[in-house]
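Before relying on records like the one below, remember that each one covers exactly one chain. Contacts with other chains, cofactors or solvent are not represented anywhere in the record.
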Amino acid sequence: MVCADHGLALVYFLQTDVLPTLLGAGSQMVLLTDDGIVDRVRDRFAHLPIVVEGMRLDQVRAYERKSYDLQWWLGFLRRVGGSRRINTRAMDSYVDQVIIEVSPLQLPVLPLALAARFFLRRSARWRAALVAAQRRFTPRIYQDLFERHAPALVVGSTPGWRQDRYLLREAAARGLPTASVVVGWDNPSSYSLPGAPVQDIVGPTPNEVVTLITCEGTFNTRTREYDKRLIIRAERVRPEPAAKTGSP
């Protein structure tokens, strides 16, 4: 069972050697993706022996809203509370970002979270307790899919940073092995904007190009998301060869 909740993940799983390799080894793939593009993915890859299901994002978001702040702070601590034995520069950078962007309602909690970070970075028991606290938020949204398809492995396109977190937690609760691949980026098919022209954005091009995908628009301090994505593409232009001149 594979979760591909954004455009590049779909490209990675369906348009590279990943799928042929799995099928060639006798494996079967159940692909979970954005509900708004399930029919399009089924039609596009109807020639392949795969099952495409929706991620049930409406149910995911409804569950998130029930205890959003608590779940967000647990996720924040998980992201910044790694062991100090590793390079913490990326974690520290995210803390700086949150300090700037945190909403006024969440600001009073920030000092407590930073204090917890101190102990998390120094104690494996604290980190294990944090993981256990997160796993309490496992809503069993995909129970029928697990029972119907009986997957031997569940793969996310992130280590649970996005909406795949509930799928991975449910798999762990069932004792199933999980894995993730590094295909993370923000793209126009993310954040409830299904149907982006992924092939036009990340597909092959006849010429050498560089594509920049970045954020723009209004920043939502509650969801920590921008409401738009900006895509800029530059095409390589080769200079004309200099005209040869003869000897004077």
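The mean pLDDT is 84.
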